[in-house]
Design brief:
With 210 residues, the chain is α/β, with parallel strands linked by helices. The protein is built from nine helices and eight strands. The longest helix is centred in the C-terminal third of the chain and has 12 residues.
């Protein structure tokens, strides 16, 4: 079943809480983007910053960071159900990452510039893959159409792999992204900037089924 997950990427605690109120009743899941200012150009709130918040949703943490293992303790304290690390950040020790057991489900993320074939050897070892439709680190960017071919390749050679897509998803792009084979759609700006996020979510849900 195809699923839409709201996402929040913020560097201000009050702003984070305001955005959370806008989307906390839209889905049973919420993705929180964490950037360290090194793997990405900008820096967001840290996991420690949001520990005091009591979340209603299942949490998926997208770690756009180097040395993501340093964030796993806080991820477990937040009771995160899924944690996504970037292939580009763990490539040198990826087998070590995938061989360990965690209290959360581990996923791999892939930047738009990285060839999808690079992750083929590891897809049987992960539950899902996150394909970035934009350069990681900022919401509101335009979806890069070349990413559609990556989705199709994964679904062709690894049809059982769950494909999640993040970045640039809105009413204009979601249908083509769905048709390429996407299972999970991460939506940030389109929901957070909508006058009525609930109505926007319903529009998006109808479009992925067409």
């Amino acid at each position: 079943m195809k699923t839409i997950i709201p996402a929040i990427l913020k560097d201000n605690f009050n702003d984070f809480q305001q955005k959370l109120k806008k989307v906390e009743n839209l889905s049973s899941w919420l993705q929180i983007d964490i950037s360290d200012g090194k793997f990405t150009a900008n820096k967001t709130l840290s996991l420690k910053d949001i520990l005091p918040i009591k979340f209603k949703q299942n949490l998926e943490l997208h770690l756009m960071v180097f040395n993501p293992e340093k964030y796993f303790f806080e991820a477990e304290k937040l009771n995160a159900k899924r944690v996504i690390v970037h292939f580009e950040a763990v490539e040198k020790n990826i087998n070590d990452f995938l061989s360990k057991k965690y209290l959360f489900t581990l996923g791999l993320a892939l930047n738009p510039e990285t060839k999808v074939e690079k992750i083929f050897p590891y897809l049987s070892k992960v539950n899902f893959i996150l394909i970035l439709g934009v350069t990681p680190g900022a919401q509101g960017q335009k979806f890069q159409k070349k990413v559609l071919e990556k989705i199709k390749k994964i679904k062709t050679f690894f049809p059982k792999t769950i494909v999640e897509v993040d970045g640039g998803i809105n009413e204009k792009t979601i249908q083509k992204i769905s048709q390429a084979g996407t299972d999970i759609f991460v939506v940030g700006s389109a929901l957070l900037t909508a006058e009525d996020p609930k109505k926007e979510m319903e529009k998006l849900k109808k479009l992925i089924l067409k």
